[in-house]
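Retro notes
What went well: the complex prediction finally ran end to end.
Inputs used:
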Amino acid sequence: MTPGSFAVILVHLVVAVLVTPLLIGVMRTVRARLEGRVGAGVWQPWRDLIKLLAKEPTRAPGSTPVLTLAPIVLMASSLVLCALIPLVSTVALASVPGDLFVVVSVLLVGTVSLALLGLESGTAFGGMGSSRHMVIAAMVEPTVLLSVYALSVPAGTSDLAAIVQARVADPISLLNPVSLLAIFALVVVVIAETGRLPVDNPSTHLELTMVHEAMILESGGRDLGWLELGSWLRLTALLGLVANLAVPWGVAPDAAPLSLLVGVGAVFAKLVVLGAVLAAAEVFIAKLRLFRVPELLAGSFVLAFLSVSASYLVF
Amino acid sequence: MSTQLYQQLLATTTGLLLLTAVLQVWGRTIIRAIGLLVVQGVALAGLVLTVGVRAGEPTAPLVAALVLVVKAGVLPWAMARGARRAGATRDNAALAKPAVELIGAAGLTVLAYAVSGPLVGEAADPALRAVPVGFSLILLGFWQLLIRGSAITQLVGFLMLDNGIATVSFLISGGLPLVVELGATLDVLLVVLILGALLVRMQAEQGHIDVPELRELHD
Amino acid sequence: MAVLIWIPVVLPLLLGAASALRRRSGWTLWLPVSAAAVLLGVGVALVAVVGSTGPLTAADGLLRVDALSAWMLAVVGAVAVVALWGGIPHRTHQGRNIGAFATLLCLFLSAMSLAVVADNVGLMWVAIELTTITTAFLVGARGGRGALEAAWKYVVLGSVGVAIAFLGIVLLSAASHGTGEPSLSWTVLVAHAASLDPALTRAGAALAVLGFATKAGLAPTHSWLPDAHSQAPSTVSGLMSGVLLSVAFYAVLRVQAIGDAALGPELMRGLLTAAGLLSLAVTAGLVITQKDFKRLLAYSSIEHMGLLALGAAAGGPFAIAALLLHMLGHGLIKSSMFVLAGRILGFAGSHHIADVRNLLRRRPDLGGPFLLGAAGLLGFPPFVTFFTEVAIIIAGFQRGLGWQMLVACALLLVVFAGVVRHVLAMTVGAEADRDAARTSSAPPDRPARFRQVPIGIALAAAAVLGFAAWPLSGPLLAAVAALGGVR
Amino acid sequence: MSALLAPTLMDAGLLAQLAVGGLAVVAAVLAPPRARNLAAGGALVATGLAGAVTGVAALLGVEAGGVPVPVALPLTAPLDALVLAPDALGGLFMALAGVVVALAALFGIGYAHGAAASRTGWTAFAVFAVGLQLVPAAADAISFLLAWELMALGSTVLLLADHAARGPVRRATLWYAVMTHLSFLLLLAGFGVLVAAGGSTSFAAMRTAGVAGPAADLAFVLMVTGFATKAGLVPVHVWLPRAHPEAPSHMSAAMSAAMVKMGVYGMLLLTLRLLPAGPRWWALVLVALGAVSALYGILQASVQADLKRLLAYSTTENIGLITTAVGVGLLLRDSGQSAVADVALVAALLLAVSHAAFKSVLFLGAGSVLHATGTRDLDLLGGLAARMPWTSGAFGVGALGAAALPVTSGFVAEWVLLQGLIHVDARTDRLLAIVIPVTMGIVALTIGLGLLTFVKAYGIGFLARPRTSAAADAREAGVAMRTAMVAGAVLVVGLGLVPGPLSQALAAAVAATGVASVNGAGLAVGAAAAVLDPVALTALAAAVLVPLVAVNVVLARRHPRREVALAWGCGGERTSPRMEYNATSYSEPVVRVFRASLQARRAVDVVHPDSAPMIVEHMSFTQETADVVESRLYLPATRALARAGDLARRVQNGSIHRYIGISFAALVLVLVVVAL
């Protein structure tokens, strides 16, 4: 437990919170431009957030504490996620390493709080969103664990920071089939977990296709603000993870201010590029029917499984 | 008693036993079955006397007389009386065709000879060599029980089986201790009495004494 | 001391005579009960005496009590007390010919005692045939076609079976000619086993086992049993199932001892295993779709006899001790179950399982013990049957009857499923109570507490027996030793 | 022998359980009806605690002298006396059973009513509890079977308790009794094989006999099937989803949390103690059995609408995970990777302990709900969180545990399991390279579906608006019930926060090395070089939460929450609670995705008025999911059995000639056999 790791965590949190709305703004803008719209500008998410946080939320008579707690828990879980994932630096807390399984479970805490909130809304929409959300989460789970498992085999540990470090040390492994298969599977996971196309359309309010939006339909004001920020933070964390796994350079190996600065710059660049690519890709894909999503996820599972087996059998 | 006479007497009595047993299977009238039983009783008594005298048993005439009284006298008489009261003259409830019955009887006799062979071995004693007759009687008695439907003829089958056991017993070991012999005879008498009592009730309940009708208790 | 041997044979005869004379008195039916109680007392006393001084003989060695006979006497007494006491009908239901009924019961007890204490195989055969004769009237006692049919089948099949046993005994006797001192005494036969004629012994022992197995209700010669047990009055069913079968099985054990000593265990083991497994199979097949609860109990007796046969086939002190204890446990439970079945019959007016519903709610005084007794029959602890079943199966494996025991376990499961299904159907359920109106309007004919006593005692005893190491272990081992000890 | 019989503190503990259990029976029988719950329940709480203390002592390595069981049967050589003497592994399971019994009995004081509160009910519970706690104490085959059957008897009677109230109870009892007996007979046969091969009934002697070869294989197959039946693994799980819902809830808790664990204990006893050197395929059998059960169990659980049935299937899932862990452990021991194998075995034990904790809470919570609303059907519940805060809180914690979310015991257990899996070195072993990833995938999918299942159970049952008046009128449970639930919930969180010491003790129980306690609370897996410190994780979360909550509070001061009647339903028009998503609709996507293995049957019934066929007057939708194993495996078997029964009846067709014929045939056969 060193001051360095505290500093790293603080940097992670600050960077994540500051960068995330911007990242969303960039993605929306890219998309708008490609679709021939002007768009609201990259700062619009920030403006939305501040507006929402300053507004009063509502509650129905007989509602339960989940209504109040769920947004906070989602937010907290996303923040812990950002703290644990090696976004900027691979220095981790000795007693809370960015362990793969811990990270996944923290992610799931957020998923569950969203799903419960959806149910708490007491409407058909909320339940529907919650149900779909959980099914997708359940089906994503094997892919998540297996793909990171595949990446962890060469490193011999489930500590994400250690994995990233090992990949920096052995760049050749980046291009081997194990790594490629796993990263591709992971991308599908990120898309599914964060509700992007083709699994979910983040900007739709069409009742039959909503997943994420259906759950937060009843929320407003401050609650909605936290929910939006929390969800965006998840995107940042996961995209950051994929980016740092795929392109591990630039991640600070220690807590020195300079390398941290480099790390911040690197992760910002990677996030923006990746976000832009994602947004651009989304323009060209249509949302899948809900019941074809399992096919997509099964495909990604197969990729992950192959990568694990390959990591044993081929190398 | 000379050996030749002994052998002759043994042959006669056991031959008579076997003959009556086969004839039992052949015919179907009740009165004839009872008649054959009487003959069988007499033959059995003769056998007992022959074997006993040959062995020098002092009680042999007594046992023979007992056998004669019970097997050729009391039991057939009781059965004939029962049959008269039940008005039964013929076994109408037989289960197989006569030919099948007779072929079965032949087969069983052969079987009796086959299975009792190892028991008596290559004995020189003519009594032991006659043991298969006893086994035939037992198997044919059982056969009778199996193919006859009237209560009386079933009873006849049972008695024939009993005669067979007695035959085996006398031929193979010259009889059991007297107390056991008496007890066994008493038991057979009692069994026949009970079956007679049940027979009377059967007649009263259903108007005839055909056993195949007794099929109410089943699963 | 030898007088102790005569008491169980003669005293029931005297009491029988007394009940024939006092045929209508209210206490006539208590005479058999007291005869049974005396049997129990004498049996226990003999267990103690034989344990300390060795076997007793009387009547020139015709009668002999060793540890096994003493144990069997105690079992007969204990089970008979339960069956007879529990079976005493309510004063208002007593029929006209209770004198004859009581006399026959006394004779029956006497015959069983004689069978157990006889040292002579022939005498024992006579005694066992006598039990057939006495029970024949008892089975038919209720009158009606069913009882007649059952009695006829019982007598014909029973006597034929026992006649086969007699043939076996004749051959055994012939086998002993070679020893120089032809005899039918158990002790002599076992002592001279080595010099018996092997071929005759082989045939004699096999036929005797087959014959006595008929009486013991072992498949495939069990056919009379379900009919007789379901048609007889419950007391008689209880007695027959609880002790008569066991006494017949006792004869099988004695014959087995001779056969094993003379020929080695293979023949007897093969026969008994086949009989045991067939009995279990027959029970398994016929309990599944059983419709009559007294027949259900009857088949359960066949199952238990099958278990005994498997135990005897396994042999060895552990298995034999277990099967002797099992006789006691099964007898106690089964006789109470038959008594209860009789009461249920009186209450529901039908033999059919389908006509008896919800006993636990409608008649907890019947349903509760019935359920408990069923648990005992199925071998749940703390009932002694649990220990004995486990012991028999484990002993079977230990002595090389592996696959036979596996088959037995499979069949036991089917039996279990069938019995549980029917017992549950009778005792519990949430169906609307069809007869609720009738039962609530009629005054509940709750029997006096007193009538529950024998059943309570029997079930409690069966539950405690398994843990009674102190008084029981010694006599059981002694009884095993009386059969020839460790084989 | 004298050393064996020397009385020790341990024996005092064992005897105390018997004595207090007996006292509970006496209390149940003698206490007046009004005081019966308190007297008998209190005594049973004491029994459970005595078991817990004794078990912990045994777990910590206190030697048992051995309490002999007196039996009437003379046990001559080579059989051994019946002795109760738990070892460390047994101690763990005894402690587990004791704690669960204590919780269930405490809950029962407030909950038991009707038949469950009768003399029979409490007596049966006492018999069950004593049997349950003594199964792991048995040191020989016969006392094991004795305790096993006492447990079976007690639970069967308790299961019957509500027979008068509900129809399905009888069928459930039948299933339960038969499957339980199947398990018993399989064990009996298995022990028979072991005794025959090893020459003794005592466990110690069986181990030293070193049985191997076909006898060991046969014993393994028999006993694993027997234990699997008790543990509720697929395909012998069928009693579980019937029995758990119908039993009184405190009983369901004890059955699910403790009794099925005895199956797990049995498997461990068999594979670690009695036959420690089994071939590789044994381990593979366990892995396969476990993986299939886990997946099938959770799949079924996720589509159930009956709360207790859902929990029952989830038990199958959890036991499946435990069995998988055991199997992986054995597989790795066989492959020489003993360090990782130890991790998997410790994971199995942690999963068992954790499941005991959260499943008791869940079943007790379900009991509380049932008590308050009279229904177990999630489709009729809702809004209970506002009405039953204690129950809701405890159930919520239990659900978190079942979903394996931090920081609960469930999370810790699954973390250790996954650590064990990913650190397998499969490079040299092609079998492992296939088995381990597949296992990982199945475990992961199980975890995912578990999450869905418990979100559904909690969200549909406790959140939003009540769907029926029964749920709307629900009242919080009484003190005893609340205490029991909260105590269970505290255990779930406590074990999740401080898993270190427990894990260390568990490791000692299976002679595992490499799992250690760090920082007082945390858990270090040496073989995997991984550390889990839930306290630190909680601290991190708290550190994040503090500013977050502060901001939130400040904002809330400035803009307080507004209550609006129209908030439900997009803030728009007033919607009926019947329009909420319910449990059936919640799991609809799962039903669709896994339709092949769930075989759901649906019927949509639309009624039109006679005059206007285009107008819908009334519409109904029903959906039934079938237990495929039951319909494909058990129904044909029972039908075949019934046919066999019909066939067998021909043997006994009433004709005396047939009977004579059979006897005659037997005679002829015997004669032929004798003569030849």
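What we learned: The first helix of chain D runs from residue 2 to 5.
What to try next: split runs per interface for comparison.
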